[in-house]
Amino acid sequence: MSAFRSLSRREFLPAFASLLAATTAGVGAARAQELGGQAEWKQSYDAATNLRVARSTTPVLSPMTLQSTEQMVETYRRLASAGGFPQMPQANNLRVGSKGPVVVALRKRLIASNDLDPSLGTSQTYDSFVEAGVRRFQERHGLIPTGVINAATVTAMNVPAEVRLRQLETNVVRLRSYAGNLGNRFVVANIPAALVETVENGMVMTRHAAGVGKIDRQSPVMTSRATDINFNPYWTVPASIIRKDLIPKMQADPNYLTENKIRIYNQQGQELQPTQVNWRSDEATRYMFRQDPGGEFNSLGFVRINIINPYGVYMHDTPAKGIFGDDFRFVSSGCMRVQNVRDYITWLLKETPGWGREQIDAAIEGGQRIDARLAQPVPVYWTYITAWATPDGLVQFRDDIYNKDGLGQLPIASMQKAGDEDE
User: What is the β-pairing status of strands 330-332 and 303-307?
Assistant: First the structure.
């Protein structure tokens, strides 16, 4: 460590990049295998394919991830001691073909974090190699890998190395808390990453982008079990959403409930018409609101996955699948939307007789309310991991959207986009 501290910042950064590159070079081909063809992981690199982020089979909750993250803490301590990363000037819409000093600064920043090979130099041209490096950086920070520099990418680049070090240290403690036996088959839902992993025999089987709770309606950190699945479910509107969302929407548009096929029931179970309710008062909070089944419009989509917990949250499909292409998927009232939900429930039900993929597809397409109880409940871990490393030497960072790291809210969190409520 003392040898690193004797280096200047200019000398250290290339050495740091070389250290990470050397670590990455030992990756086995097995760790790059495909994981179910999930749409959110598809990417294209025209050049520098050695810099692409391979889809590791290592779960975020695993002894290997813990060990790799502990090692990355030491690496980032040396980096922070040497002065951290070079500052990236504010820039927007830099892309292939762009030229100028800002591209030189971008190259230096990418080289420093091992997202660009140092041998490619500091040309003023934004070429396909730089684009691949930007994609790699974006993917490591949970941003859509467009290969184009935008405000969110620059903001992530300018988070100080000292902050990243403290993130890693904080998350080592979190990862250690999951060091016990999590089960042979389990689900990890990492809230800051807005990502769900299914894990079997210590390997990730499928990955799914997710939509999770907003800053003011957070998804809870918890340990639970998936017990049953509702096909073509009704959606009963929670009381909090009635107050915060439904009443204001009815004040703005008296046809909102009718257009969204949401029915009103009084305490005697009698259906009321929207015109019978005084929407300028809190009268609506005394009624039950229930949306008809229908994957194209129902807020739960075609499927609801029930998990045991005291918070009233669950996992589900959504008709608003466009959110899975967003950088910031903190859009719900605490429940979790899951992309490619058919793949997810196929994995959940694989040990339940009579529920293969053919039966699942038939249940969804039939449009009827059907329930399937898992033969063996599957452990589900809703976690909060904002920084981790994998055995290939790759380090991942996510924004501390709920400000749980104790570092103050990082700038990217302020960019969160508002979304419609759906549960």
Answer: unpaired
String of b and e for 250-284 (b: at least 16 CB within 10 Å)? beeeeebbeeeebbbeeeeeeeeebeebebeeeeb
Of the candidates 335, 348, 360, 395, the residue annotated as catalytic is 335
Select which of 316, 329, 337, 398 is catalytic.
Answer: 316
Cα–Cα separations (whole angstroms), residue 72 to 161, 166, 294, 400: 12, 11, 47, 19
Distance CA 353, CA 149 (A): 49
Task: Give the torsion through C-alpha atoms of 193, 199, 204, 207, to 10 deg.
Answer: -50
**Distance separating alpha carbons of residues 207 and 344, to the nearest angstrom:** 8
Q: What is the mean pLDDT of residues 183-210?
A: 96
pLDDT digits over 273-319, tens only?
Answer: 999 999 999 999 999 999 999 888 999 999 999 999 999 999 999 99
148-155 mean pLDDT: 94
Decide if pLDDT at 114 tops 80. yes
The number of angstroms, rounded, from the C-alpha of 13 to the middle of its chain's C-alpha atoms is 29
Beta-strand pair 370-383/222-231:
antiparallel
- What single DSSP character describes residue 404? -
* Residue 371 bridge partners (DSSP): 230
Lowest mean pLDDT among 22-31, 92-101, 205-214, 218-227: 22-31
Q: Dump pLDDT digits (tens) for 74-109.
A: 999 999 999 999 999 998 889 999 999 999 999 999
What is the average pLDDT across 46-51? Answer: 40
Cβ(134)–Cβ(147) below 8 Å:
yes
- In angstroms, rounded to a whole number, what is the distance separating the alpha carbons of residues 136 and 357? 34
Told to judge if 1 belongs to the known catalytic residues of this protein, a careful annotator would answer no
Q: What is the DSSP string of 157-177?
A: HTS-HHHHHHHHHHHHHHHHT
CB of 94 closer than 8 Å to CB of 126: yes
208 catalytically annotated:
no
Does the predicted model carry a pTM greater than 0.90?
A: no
pLDDT reported for residue 417: 43
Q: How far apart are CA 53 and CA 99, in angstroms?
A: 26
Distance CA 187, CA 93 (A): 37
* Residue in 103, 110, 104, 123 with CA at minimum distance from that of residue 51: 110
Separation between Cα atoms, residue 76 and residue 254, nearest integer Å: 56
- Beta-carbon contacts of 362 under 8 Å, excluding residues fewer than 6 positions away, are none
Length of the chain: 423
- Give the CA count within 13 Å in the CB-facing half-sphere of 320: 17
Token pair recorded at residue 313: 């949250």
Show the tokens assigned to 49.
């394919």
